[in-house]
Design goal:
The complex is a heterodimer of chains A (about 70) and B (about 140).
Chain A (H helix, E strand, L loop, with lengths): L1 E4 L2 E4 L6 H7 L8 E5 L2 E2 L15 E6 L2 E3 L2
Parallel strand pairs in A: 1-5
Antiparallel strand pairs in A: 1-2, 3-4, 3-5
Chain B lengths: L1 E2 L2 H14 L5 E7 L2 E8 L8 E3 L2 H13 L3 E9 L8 H5 L7 E6 L7 E8 L2 E5 L1 E2 L6
Parallel strand pairs in B: 1-9, 5-6
Antiparallel strand pairs in B: 2-3, 2-5, 6-7, 7-8
Classes of the chains: A mainly beta (about 70), B alpha/beta (about 140).
Amino acid sequence: MQITVNGKSVQTREGITVTELLVEQKVKTPEYVSVELNGEILDRETFPATVVPDGATVEFLYFMGGGAR
Amino acid sequence: MIILPPGVLADLVAHARAEAPVEACGLLAGAGARVQRSCRLTNLDGSPEHFRLDPREQFAAVRAARSEGLAILGVYHSHPATPARMSAEDVRLAFTPDFHYVILSLADPAGAVAKSFTVIDGRPVEEAVLHEEPET
């Protein structure tokens, strides 16, 4: 099936979960990634059980933060 | 190398001064190595010593940049009272590959100092900050 990941068209398999998609996309630190699926930000706890539907738009981005010390 | 045009740098300094003593933070949108504009974001930590971007604002900034044909090249934050260097926490939390990490220090009363870093194999590497395209 065809989905859009971070603005790019991607071919992937049907039934893939968000967790599996992050692995497929070679995300090294999924625990520090936020995911938006069709415009909705997902709770991290739901990644393993959330199936990405055909034609979905997925955005993911890394946590960004830091400190002065 | 990163190119921060004078107008963009002025925006970063103005943002840092407006938020001080809290750390200011945001994203840098552009193409190639040239930043075209900054995107001011909320520091969810609201702290003088820490910052954390709001993911909702991050997603919105990414979409806005993409709609303009730009990409997010990096993230910036201010150090209101300490030098422009990557702290251990900055490095530990630098997850985004191929990103520019710009730090703006207000610690020197003589003027703001901006430095940019990349993180390679877990180590910060300072890179050149240009204000105009280099001559070829």
